[in-house]
Structures are given as C-alpha cells and as structure tokens.
Input
Amino acid sequence: MSIMTNNEIVADILLELADLVDLKGDEPFKSRAYRMAADNILRLSEDVAVAAAEGRLKEIPGVGDAIANKIEEILTTGTLRLRDRLREEIPPGVVELLHVPGIGPRTASTLYKAGVMSLQALVAALDDGRLLGIHGLGPKKLQNLRRDIERYLAFRTRLPAGDLWPVATGVAAWVAAKPGVLRVDVTGALRRHGATAGGIDLVAAAEDPIGLAKTFAAWEQLAEATFAVPGQASGRLPDSTPVQLMAVGPAAFAQALFRTTGSEAHVRHVEALLQARGLRLDEVTFDDEQAIYAAAGLVYVPPELREDRGEVELASQGELPVLLERKDLQGDLHCHTTYSDGTRDLETMAIAARERGLHYLAITDHSPSLAVAHGLDRARLMLQKKEIDRLNERWSDFRLLWGMEVDILPDGRLDMDDETLALLDVVVASVHTAFHLSKEAMTVRVCRALENPHVDILGHPTGRLLGRRDPYEIDLDEVIRAAARNQVAIEINAHPWRLDLDEGHVRQARAEGVKLAINSDAHGPGGFDDLAWGVQVARRGWLGPADVVNTMALPALLLWLRRRS
Output
C-alpha cells in the first residue's frame, strides 16, 4: 500500500484544524490561513520535513511563524495539540457538515449552535421544521440545504478517479506479491479512465484463484489502508467504497479482464459478434484481449472507448481513430507561479516543465480582480515579462510564453484591458466568481468573452470540482458553437478534481471543429504530471493529436496564436 507522505499528513491536520476553527466561528482569518498553508504544502515538490530541517518552512507561501511552529509540532509528534483540543469540543459529525457543498463556515457554525450535531441530525431537523425561524436559515436557505445534502450523498457513492487510483495500484501491488499470482490489472471504470468510479475492481490470474480470493477477503489491512487524497481530513479509503477482486485461473484471465473493463453494452455487443461466428467467450481460451477482438472480426478497442458509442462499428471496419498519447503533447498552456497563487517561482516551474519533456510552457497567472489569488495588475505583469525574457535566453530547446488567466467578469467583459491583452502570447479566459448566475446569464457571459479577439482558450469551462462542487449552470452546446465561430480553443483541465471538459462535450467540440487544449493548471512542479489525466479525457473523447493545439510544434503554435490578428 502507499503510505501518506509527510506533506499529506501535515496538510490533512491543518485542513481539519481549519474546519474546527470555522465551526467555532470566531477566527475566520485563521482558518483561511491554515487552508492556504495546507494547499501550498500539498503542492510542494519536496518533503516538508526537509524544508523544516533546513529552516525553510517560512519560504512556503502562507507559512509564517505560528503555522511553522504547528508544522514542526506535527512532524515531531505526529499530531497537533490545538487540533486535538478542538476535536474534544466539537463532535466529528459536525465537521462533516462543512464537507457538504453549499454549507460554508457561517452556516455550519449556525447549525452547530442550533444543536445540529451530524448530517443525520440535519436531515431530521429539516424534516420536522425545527430550524425555521433561526436567523440566517430562511425558507429558501433550508430548501437549498436539502438539495445540497442530496448532492453530497450522491457524490459519496462515486469518487474522483484521481483519488481512487493510488489505492487501486497499491492494492494491486499487494495482490501481485502473493505466491502463485501471475498477473493483476485494475479494471472497471478506473481502467476505462472515467472521471469518477464507484469503487475499485481488480482482476488477477493465479495458480490457486480460490485460495487467493480467500486471502483477499480476509485481508484486514484493507480497511486501514492509507493513500493520498489531498484535501481530506483522512487518507483512508472511505468505508462505503467497495474494493473487489476477481481471481481466475490463467486461461480465463483475458476473458475476465475484457468482461470487467467495458461497459455492459460494449461487452454484450462484442459477445453477440462472437456468437454470430459460432464462438462463446467462456468456451474458448484467448491469450489476450487482442485475440478476443480479432475473433469477433474487430481491431483492438482501447479501454477508454469501450462504452458502445459507435466504437464497435468502427472497429469492424478497422477505422478507429488514432488516439492521443501523452508523448504527443509538446507543451502546456496554463500554469501558475508565485506571481499569483502558485507555490513555485517562474524559473522552477520552467525547469520542471522542461524536465518532463515539454518544449514550451505558457505562464498564465491570474488577473487583478481575483484578489484571493494575488492577481497581477499591468505593472506586475510587465515585471514578469522581463523575467520571462531573461529565462528564455537560457534554452534553445524550450520556450516560456507570456500569458495570463483572465477572469471573465459577470457581464462577460475581461478583467484586463485589450491593450495589455494584445501584448500577451496566450490568453486563457476563465470563470472564477459569481457561479450563481442563471444558465442563460452564464451562457451569455461566457459567449461574450469568447468574442474578444485576444482570447485563445476557454479555461475549465464548467467550473466543476468532482465530488466537491457542482458545475455552474451553462449551455455548453451554445458555448461550443461560440468557440467555433470565434476560433477559440476549449480547455480540458487535467487536474484530477476537474477533468473539465467531460468526454461527451469533448466529442461534440471535435465535431464542431473546435480545437482542444490539454492543460495542467499546475500551481507547482508536480502539477505537470496531471497532464496524463487530461490525455485520458481526450482519449475518451476520441481525440487524436491533430485535435489538440498543444501537440503543435512551437512554430505552428505561434502561427495558431496569431490566427485572429
């Protein structure tokens, strides 16, 4: 199993402390500071214990004397006395209220003071009407609370694949190490690389499959296994998340992997083709999945496409698209540095991108209205340009592009003047505020922004955070058509909590002739590794290299960036 790192342990305790302070309701500035420090620690590219040993904790953005002392205490003792004291005061069920999308610190504190001690108690209180009349909890608010709880409970049945993947690979490694195990693969929704999954499914070929199944069922460690889930107070696998192992003999492995990977509709479709040729899946031994598809008269269908959305018909004609691969990406067009809310300076981010094989990187720090992210005004933006120019003198095989992630204001204007935007190499336009707008107003807002001739890419188009925040209401059909009219690319944000745009709208964008950009939105060096998640979304959306702007070599990309000038 993968064990939680020092960075995750420290961040989890600070995040839980922030929750507890929020519930006390008297020091909101402290909870914000704890969250900022935790977020930056999670994004560190080094062990926070090393920074502590070298006396560099206060170099981490958001870490001052008081928080540095708390980090030292956590690293030394494994706990934090302040957190432990607040735990004794506030029931754990109350803390969970803060995890419900739509329940902020003020509402959670109000509910706590009203005697609501758990999510179950809140549901009961909503049912019997006892919260009516409490200041801050009017009829509309209570109606929204019920809706938010329903969404939260739905979220808990499926987790982001990025959260599940570390424990899935950890369990697979544990199984693979058992005597007589010949092969283990992660399967199901995780192997198809969906954005979320309801659990973890594994297939193993073993000399003694019954014995392996019994060993796995008796593995007490599974319930106590820890893994990396940034931003959660516990790194343990949620109790409600099933982990299942199908153990089979070596001759049945290919069939088991095939059956458990594809959607039910895809599997039935392929089995019907096999039966039409006089073959039954259970009665033939196949060396691998390629042999199964060949026996059905099909070329091999990659796991990401196995949804029965036309892939079987194309496979029968040998006309499946050539799908994008991570090696096809030449650069990244969306990242942040310490000029705004990134955790590393410009030089460090450039070196990290170059080390990962990228040939260009757009620096797109936030625009001024996003004060919480320390957005740049024109003066600071010009200072950044000088540093970019200086760094570009160092490399002949890598180039930094000067850009900005510009806020789309509620009325559709951009949070930077056109004169300044015209100077930039890359402009990413994104919504970061006023998520409450109606579907019509949000659609008009975004489409108006796309009409600005300086916009190159629409960033994270729905604002969703998987399992944490619903997408805002927007007509993506109309947005995609607007992007096509204005020759604006749409981003596939590769952060595993976003994966925004989803694969259905990716296919629609491709059909409309809209280019996609697979961007990391990295706030630290490790964020560039998330590009692999964005590639998986692109593959599920049937994209090939020609559909993605940042597969272009730099000269071609620069021509594309000047397409509207």
In short: The longest helix spans residues 6-24. The first strand starts at residue 159 and ends at 160. Confidence is low (pLDDT under 50) at residues 223-236.
